[in-house]
Amino acid sequence: xxxxxxxxxxxxxxxxxxxxxxxxxxxxxxxxxxxxxxxxxxxxxxxxxxxxxxxxxxxxxxxxxxxxxxxxxxxxxxxxxxxxxxxxxxxxxxxxxxxxxxxxxxxxxxxxxxxxxxxxxxxxxxxxxxxxxxxxxxxxxxxxxxxxxxxxxxxxxxxxxxxxxxxxxxxxxxxxxxxxxxxxxxxxxxxxxxxxx
Length: 197
Prior knowledge:
- This protein is an alpha+beta fold.
- Helices cover 24% and strands 40% of the residues.
- It contains three helices and ten strands; from the N terminus they run αβββββββαβββα.
- Strands 1, 3, 7, 9 and 10 form a five-stranded antiparallel sheet that branches. Strands 5-2-8-4-6 form a five-stranded antiparallel sheet, with helices on one face.
- Helix 1 (2-19) runs antiparallel to helix 3.
- It starts with a helix and ends with a helix.
């Protein structure tokens, strides 16, 4: 009976260890944090280094604090998810032209959205993009991050003042193959033990 109790306890611990997943939250900010107030003359690539191979991205939020267009007229802020941009911030001089084609950024990517400031000239708004609401953006973020670098392409069609840009990433642990093998061995051992009884 003690052996059976030991076997059941060990199996329960293995199962608990394999299925208990811990959510982790990571926060990233570019340098400078406001991307030079998103000048109209440039497009911006922001590459994020990602060293979390055993974690799956479950949520990504891109936030702009107190963002506003410099004057009250319709202007746009184009936002793209990028695969393999250069790590850090890269300003691309575009002389105020809009990078509509995502391939003009160094990294390939996925279009997310275009923001239009409804007011212009301030006051600013806090703007947040939860990528879960944009088609397969989370799937693409996982795919892009798998090689260690992913990020965003941001192209202002005017001057967008802001107090800072933040990306918040939530992940969940992906069980390693060794853990799954150990779990399987424990279940097999329990099955053999019960069969012998």
